[in-house]
Design goal:
2 domains, about 15% strand, alpha+beta, 4-stranded antiparallel sheet, single chain, globular
């Protein structure tokens, strides 16, 4: 009975978060999906469920950027920019940083910094995803 109640609570929590994010027009990234998945998995199945739920949630949350856009950015590297501090999902990219448009994706652009690739939602210039691609240092 306890697991049923916890499962119902977890589903309700995840569902309401998704509805709020959709209503606000916000793209939920891999970080948010990972956290939500880990919480739900942990509530229902314990520590192992938290690990599996976190991974699954991150994969689902990361789907805000299409695979074709990731491939485009990978095949069209740009000069990296310098940004002081941490860059993560939700970071608003300053206007001084040039964003590179993606053919076939009118909603997203990309840039490289700190040896990584980042995707930005054009409306609002907010980082929504980083696939973890590390850029080799140029000699």
């Amino acid at each position: 009975m306890k697991k049923l109640i916890l499962a119902t609570l977890a589903v309700f929590t995840l569902g309401s978060g998704t509805v709020l994010a959709q209503d606000a027009g916000v793209a939920v990234g891999g970080t948010a999906g990972g956290v939500s998945g880990a919480i739900a998995g942990g509530l229902i199945f314990g520590p192992i469920g938290a690990v599996i739920g976190g991974f699954t949630g991150a994969v689902i949350g990361a789907s805000a950027v299409a695979d074709t856009s990731i491939e485009y950015a990978r095949l069209n590297p740009t000069e990296p920019v310098v940004i002081e501090g941490d860059v993560d999902v939700g970071y608003v990219v300053p206007d001084t940083i040039e964003l590179h448009v993606i053919d076939g994706d009118p909603d997203h652009a990309y840039f490289y910094t700190n040896d990584r690739l980042y995707f930005v939602e054009l409306e609002g210039r907010t980082v929504v995803y980083s696939p973890g691609i590390v850029v080799a240092a140029q000699e």
